[in-house]
Amino acid sequence: EPLQNAGPATGQVIRSLDTLLDEYYDALGYTRQGVPSREKLQELGLTEVIEDVAISGRTH
Questions:
Q1: pTM for the structure as a whole
Q2: Alpha-carbon distances, residue 35 vs 18, 23, 45, 51, 56 (angstroms)
Q3: What is the mean pLDDT of each run of 10 residues along the chain (60 residues)?
Q4: Residues of 2-40 as b/e, b for ≥16 C-beta within 10 angstroms?
Q5: Domain ranges of the chain
């Protein structure tokens, strides 16, 4: 919904914070819950923690 009476921002549409956060996590290679994905952990050389994170049920 466009902003009303917002000075220079009047009429502009602000995307929801949830959408922005999802896009941010996607760009980082994280899950939507903010946890590094298996691929990201491998990329960072953190293979030793992949199983621990997977066991906790937090990676995809």
A1: 0.60
A2: 16, 14, 15, 13, 11
A3: 79 83 94 90 93 72
A4: eeeeeeeeeeeeeeeeeeeeeeebeeeebbeeebbbbee
A5: 7-55
